[in-house]
Design a protein that fits this description.
Distance between the termini: 58 Å
Shape: globular
Strand order of the largest sheet: 1-2-8-7-4-3
CATH class of the largest domain: Alpha Beta
Helix content: 40-55%
Oligomer: single chain
Structural class: alpha/beta
Number of strands: 8
CATH topology of the largest domain: Rossmann fold
CATH architecture of the largest domain: 3-Layer(aba) Sandwich
Radius of gyration: 25 Å
Order of helices and strands: EEHHEHEHEEHHHHHHHHHHHHHEHEH
Number of domains: 3
Largest sheet: 6 strands, mixed
């Protein structure tokens, strides 16, 4: 059996439909090309379930324009069409010997319309910052190390993947937290090793640079592996911190999150653009795109062009903002039952908030308020509270498939509802390592018994998933005691997503005349 997908990590996969956004959401609808794309995607999704011996109940985001007076677009029907195709493939698999005959897990099919902000906003975790700011090629990071025998520095490629225990421990930590923990690990390493103290002593107690650490590797070969790992991540975290300072990302991140949670509006963005002349074009564009997701009416016609003029952005960037409307509106705040997701807001306090604050969440680190919408959707799905009107079933689940939110201990034994064998995961729950300089304990503790967990939850996002959404799936696996797996047509970092969004239309804006800034409506 062909297994047509790529694993991005132990709880994520992509179907490698890298042009799905262009083929499915382009300004000129092409149902023939779109159907071909969905057929390939459905086949590839189905092979995930074949390889894991899982048979899901399938749910999807319902089309928003189902009233008879409104014409339903192809784009609006994408989750519906994909769900039907996946179901048809799975029905063929039921003929295979030993394939489950009743539902063993849940699959929720979404598209990018449920959350247009997650692919654009700055995500402040170590993993996301690496991808967003360091121009990495896939998981590959290139850095300089001291040359052999005193020669010139050499370039070295390293992979930031789950086999690296330091990466495994810190990838989902806030960048400030990761930086502090790395510093603590190095301090503890030096305190525990006399030879390291001698090396460090030559620095008169000063801070160790990355270069010092790499020289220490040469002087202390017996500790080379530990120091190698630590020095690599100290270098990366230090570089990210410098970029954050150079680009003024804290102020940018603040206005982004204030917009999302309704604490800032159009006036604040205009004030920000007029007072911050040194903000890069890409970061101004990202703020404008978040603004467009929240206030789409402010970008109709010439209003949007005037905002672009205020931000001093080229017409090419305007395409990215304008094309967000092709992804569909995320929700109708006047009538949340017809929207892509249902959230209740305090309309007197935060009229334009796109998501509610998570109560009871202690915000230890600045700019950690943001969360992707799928976090609420997955929690509601697990609790059996996800709207069946907004997220209907493709099939009527069999009676044994109900009640999946019960604790694992009161359900049937796994063998009674699943034909698969649970694998040992390589993800790690947040915990401190047993020693101060090595994170190997993370790897030793990853043999949690998945058989004690409930049924798996699969979420598939058409049009590209984000690092924040993958992080949430790891987090909810621990919280819900159910392995949550994220699939998508691609895994995109903000620069990639913005480039793809620009390709949805030809550049139609070069000939347009921009009017006076006096015309901007606030």
């Amino acid at each position: 059996m062909n297994l047509e997908y790529f694993a991005t990590d132990s709880q994520g996969f992509v179907t490698d439909n890298d042009r799905a956004l262009e083929e499915l959401y382009g300004d000129e609808e092409n149902p023939r090309k779109g159907d071909a794309c969905l057929n390939v995607m459905a086949t590839r999704i189905a092979t995930v379930f074949a390889s894991l011996r899982e048979f899901p109940s399938v749910r999807y985001r319902a089309a928003k324009s189902l009233d008879p007076m409104t014409m339903t677009t192809f784009r609006d029907m994408i989750p519906t069409k994909l769900a039907a195709r996946v179901w048809n493939c799975l029905m063929q698999y039921k003929k295979i010997p030993n394939f489950p005959q009743t539902e063993t897990c849940e699959l929720l099919i979404l598209d990018r319309s449920v959350d247009q902000i997650a692919p654009i906003i700055h995500e402040w975790t170590y993993d996301a910052m690496c991808r967003d700011l360091l121009n990495m090629e896939g998981n590959k990071y290139v850095h300089e190390v001291p040359g052999k025998a005193g020669g010139p520095p050499e370039k070295q490629e390293v992979l930031l993947e789950e086999h690296d225990p330091v990466w495994l421990e810190l990838r989902h930590a806030h960048i400030a937290d990761a930086y502090e923990r790395l510093h603590d690990k190095m301090t503890t390493f030096i305190a525990k090793n006399k030879a390291a103290q001698i090396q460090h002593g030559s620095r008169d107690g000063g801070e160790l640079s990355t270069w010092d650490l790499q020289k220490m590797v040469q002087a202390l070969p017996q500790y080379s592996e530990q120091i190698d790992k630590l020095s690599l991540h100290v270098e990366i975290a230090g570089k990210i911190n410098r970029i954050i300072g150079d680009l003024g990302l804290q102020e940018i991140g603040q206005i982004e999150q204030d917009l999302v949670f309704g604490d800032a509006g159009m006036k604040d963005v205009i004030k920000f653009f007029t007072s911050k002349e040194d903000v890069t074009c890409e970061n101004k564009l990202r703020v404008l795109m978040i603004l467009a997701a929240i206030y789409p009416d402010k970008f109709e016609g010439e209003k949007g062009l005037n905002l672009m003029k205020l931000a001093k952005l080229p017409p090419d960037d305007m395409n990215a903002v304008k094309n967000m409307s092709l992804l569909g509106q995320p929700s109708d705040t006047k009538n949340s039952s017809t929207g892509a997701f249902s959230l209740k807001f305090d309309i007197h306090k935060k009229t334009h908030a796109t998501r509610k604050e998570h109560t009871g969440k202690e915000e230890t680190w600045q700019l950690s308020r943001f969360y992707p919408i799928i976090e609420d959707l997955i929690e509601n799905l697990s609790k059996g509270e996800l709207s069946k009107e907004d997220y209907p079933y493709t099939n009527d689940p069999s009676p044994t498939a109900h009640g999946t939110s019960q604790p694992a201990s009161v359900r049937q034994a796994p063998e009674a509802h699943s034909m698969r064998s649970r694998r040992t995961p390589t993800w790690a729950r947040p915990r401190n390592s047993d020693d101060g300089y090595s994170s190997d304990s993370i790897l030793r503790h990853t043999s949690s018994d998945f058989k004690k967990m409930g049924k798996r939850i699969f979420v598939f996002i058409v049009g590209g998933a984000t690092r924040s959404e993958l992080r949430v799936c790891h987090k909810l696996t621990s919280k819900l005691n159910r392995e949550v797996i994220l699939g998508s047509s691609s895994l995109d970092d903000p620069p990639q997503f913005i480039t793809k969004l620009k390709l949805l239309t030809a550049d139609e804006l070069n000939g347009w005349q921009m009017n006076s800034l006096d015309d901007i409506e606030i």
